[in-house]
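Final report, closing paragraph on structural work. Over the funding period we assembled a curated collection of sequence-structure pairs, and we close with a single example.
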Amino acid sequence: MILITGAAGFIGGNFVHHWFERRAKLGLPPEQVVVFDKLTYAGNPATIAAQLKSGEATLVHADIADRDAVRQALQQYQPRAILHFAAESHVDRSIHGPGEFIHTNMVGTFSLLEESRAYWMVMPEAERAAFRFLHVSTDEVYGSLSDTDPAFSETTAYAPNSPYSASKAGSDHLVRAYHHTYGFPTLTTNCSNNYGPYHFPEKLIPLMILNALEGKPLPVYGDGLNIRDWLFVRDHCEAICQVLEKGRLGETYNVGGKNEIKNIDVVTTICRKLDALRPKESGRYEDQITYVTDRPGHDRRYAIDPTKIEREIGWKPAESFETGIDKTVRWFLDNTEWIDTVRSGAYRDWINTNYQGRQA
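Its predicted structure, as stored:
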């Protein structure tokens, strides 16, 4: 059994799907998943409804900062590994309200580490040696790159520029410290921007898809030339599986998609896909693009150098941006029921708070 924090969210939910599909494909025996999730605005049990219904996954509705709840779950389910996805993750939300990011990403990670270490210390020797704590983090901890800077590597100095990235940097340091101080068997992955099925609609790619279909403006920050390294979420999930199996304890592995693309090019690519798959009665979706005032401290460029994970683990992304975005757009066109379940009042309020009133 493995325990996954934040597994009702975007990446964690995709990981649950990938976990069972991968084990079946490789002929591995089934292994139950415990989903430990606070079910915040971005946590949606409908993402993993099939696994919950079948009993393959069990949901524990609790906050990782609640040490009693963490302790009880560990004692009850006795996992052989913990995969820590749970995080507040949206930069704009962290600008408007940083407190939740400190609570979840730093205090929550600390609480999880403390209880996990206590659980690990009293395990039988063989199980103790096999136990793993895998922390899923972000490339944003490294700060921003210029157009000519080399991509982030595992030795790049941390330089977080938002409350979100600062809180994730803090959690990374805690995980590292617990390995070096206590010998706790940790692994860390720092990924580039994920996209794919089940992505919460506040994020760039699903927001552009849904706004385009509804005839709404497609708000692009600043000049639209900020660059991100886009990683299809299922490629990321496979990387995590392989790091869990093969990673060296205490090490960090950067996971990137090798797809550095300007934000405006991401938006126009989506528009072209929709023109082909769901054409408008008149005009093109690109006509809806609107440039809005940039957000404070907007990092210019992220890029990941995945040499280490390719060399040590043997992982490489399977999807190009062209194939990945095609799958993503088609998924959002085909899954309107799931979209409707997550477009709550909190979601609508957030879009209004973040974009309404921004100067065109």
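The mean pLDDT is 93. The CA atoms of residues 46 and 73 lie 22 Å apart. We thank the funder for supporting this effort.
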